Structure formats: C-alpha cells, structure tokens
Predict the 3D structure of the following.
Amino acid sequence: MPHLSMLGLGCLLLLVQTVFSKMFVHPFMPSLLLPLAIHMGISPAYQLALGASCVFVLGYLSDSFSGSPMGLQTFVLVATFLIARVAGLKFSMRRVGIQFMMSFIAALLCGSSVILLQTIFSNPMPFRASGAWMLLWLLAMSSFSVAVCAPMIFILAQSIESRSSSPSVLR
Amino acid sequence: MNSLFRRIRDALAAIVLLIIPFFFLNANLKNPSQTSSLDRIILRISAPVQYLASELASSVSFVWENYIYLVDVRREGERLQRENDRLRFENSQLWVARRENERLRALLDLRARLPVETVSASIISKEISPYFRVVRVRLDRGADERIRPGMPVLSSDGLVGEIRRTWGGYSDVVLTVDRTSAVDIVIPRSGARGILRGLGSFNNYLCHVQYLLRTDDVRKGDRVYTSGLGYKFPAGILVGTVSAIKKKTFGLYQEVEVVPAVNFSHLEEATVMLTTSLKPLVEDNGSQN
C-alpha cells in the first residue's frame, strides 16, 4: 500500500512538473521525482525490491513525458534510491536545512551522472572549454531549484506515508 | 534463512533494475548503424512499453489541454466576442458611411448636370401618414440659402417635388405624389404628353397622368420624364414609371397610373434648384442658337 501511494504521488508530481514546466525559466526547472526517490530510499517503510521497482516505473514515465533518452532518468533515479538506501541516510532528515542540503548534493550528483551518461553513450561532439563554466552554472541552478522544492515533497510524502502504511523494520 | 533469501532477492532486484535502464540507454543513444543484436532485442522489447507510456502521456495531455486548461480559452473567447461585437458595430457604421457617400456622389453628379445654381439639403424630418407613407418632407435649408416657394426639388433618383414654404433655415417640400402637385410630363418612347398629378393616397405612392389621349401609345413600364414645358422643371428629369393603364372604349383620354421614381421613405438628401422659372435660361439658349 505505501508503495502504491508513492507511485501515485510520483505520477502526480510528474504531471505537475510537466504541466507547469512552461512557467519556469530554464535552468530553474526542478525535478520533483528526485526528492521522492531520496525519501523512499531513506524511509524504512519501503522494501528495497518494491521501492526500486516503483522508482524504476517513475523514472521510465519521466523519460516518456520529458522526451529524454529512454533509460536516462530511470537509471539515475534507481541509482539515487539505492545509494540513499545503502548509505543509510537515516540521520535526521526532518530538519529543513538538512533536507535542503542533501537534496542539493543529490541533485548535483544526479545531474553530473546524466551528463556523464550522455557523454559516454552519445556520439562525441566538440566541446569548448568555456562551455564548462556554463555547464557548472546550469547544474548548480538546477540543483538549487530541486533543493528548494525538496522540503515540500518530503512533507507531502511523509503525510501520505503516515496515513497509508504500517511501519516495517529495515533489515 | 529468510533474511539471506531476502538479501539475495534485494541484491538481484537492485542489479536488474540498474542494468535494464543501462541497456535501454545504450540501445537508444547508439547510432542505429552500430546497434548489435542485443540492442535490437532490447529495443523491440521496450517498444510496446514505450508506446503505452507515450499513449498515457498523450491522454493526460489531452485531458489537461481540452478540459482543465480551458480557463484561458474561455477568457480568450470572451475577449474575442467583445472584439467581434466592436468590429461588427464599426462595420455597420462604415456601411452607413459608404451608403451616404454613394448618395452624395450621385447628388453631386446631378448638380453638375443641372443648368442652374443648386443647393444640397438633408431631409431632417418626414411627415408620416397612419399607413407610414411619407406625406411631406422638411429640408435643413431655407430662405437663408435663397430658397423660395415653387423651386424644384430633385434627387439622384428623379423628381422629388417643389418647395411649398420656407422659414429661416428650413423648407417644406410638396411631393410629386401630393394631391396639389402638377408636373408636365412626356413619355419619350411614344412622345405622349400629359400632366402628372399626385393621388395623395395615404397608403401608397401613386400618381396619375391626365390628358393622355386614348390614342397615345403608352405601355406598362414606360418611363415618364419632365417635359420642360412651363419652365418650372428642367426637361429630362425622371419622374416615374407607368404601372397601370385603364383605356376605355369611349372618351378622349386614357387613365395611366405612375409609380414615382423616388422612394420617399428612403430619401435622405435632395437638391434644390435656385430658380422658380427656367424661362430666361431657355430664351438665352434660344437666342444663342
């Protein structure tokens, strides 16, 4: 039940992100699924296999809605979930400041992974050195927008989780 | 044992769920000419799933754009409706202006053809019978513009009548259909001549021609013009069209009804000839010839 609730919430966030994408100025368009994947990773209410499967589906839908190469967001979100679970980020994520900071770092890492994956799998293209600073700027701004939205998504996920799930111990 | 099984299961799930998108990404980003058999298999397997996902995205987009997002569309529709109403109003005003332009141009042409000085006037009021027939019209020009009783009044369609009285800046016009009106006419096709008098009926515009000989060739549809005799009205001004003929087997004359050429109900402007007699002009032309 909690997995289905998170799947539903993820679909809703994806819809909001897609519909309101025109209102945001590039690169301040946040990825709303990333904080959700982090929350599912650190929360003991979600089993690893089922949680990863839910994140897999959300990532696949995100690739379909956004038009990015299939598998890109899927891989990044699943990896984020697993890293959040394996790293044992159970220390206090209730504070808004910690949520902001951890989301910012996670978004930076995810953004870098996306660039790296596209570099590896796409045909090599000429890249100017001055473009690196622009890339860093875009990455930082995008991560900042994710971090700003993260506390709200954490609150939303926790409220839905508390209504729909019974706590289970992470083994 | 259960915990070991669960750990193995979780590890396998993690590996599989990481590898699958990895292979998807590899297959999708690779140059199509460089895809391997494995890539093609992956693409073939993922195609139906991608189709379902894209259909889902299209459906959501459709619902949003056609049902939820219509707020702006409705507002835009209301704005366009107001704009449409404004443009319709402007269009009707422009149409009225164009019609007025056409009438005034025709009046200018008429003035250019007349041999005497004229003054243009607008119809400012119409006296209406109980049957909504125009009985008398009033012009916005009067004695101040040298208009006198008895002066002919014309329009681009034909003869309107003559000035009955003036005061200050206004004049009253007796129409050709009035009982007191009398105009000497000729039917050019046959040369038949007579006197056109108004019937003065309240429910239609009709005149009849007196003193048309029974032997005169008159047909329904013949045009009736001023003859110029009496030097009151210039010759060649269209008065009306023959609408009915009553020819008896005895008597000297035939009865002919004429429908006036001017539609008095729609009359908006007229031209007044500033002379009560064309005799000096005719005599001058005669002496020159």
User: Anything to note?
Assistant: The helical segments of chain A are 2-19, 33-42, 48-66, 72-86, 96-121, 130-164. The interface with chain B takes residues 15, 18-19, 47-49, 52-53, 56, 59-61, 63-65, 69-72, 74-75, 78-79, 82, 117-118, 121-123, 171 of chain A (CB under 8 Å). The two ends of chain A are 19 Å apart (CA to CA).
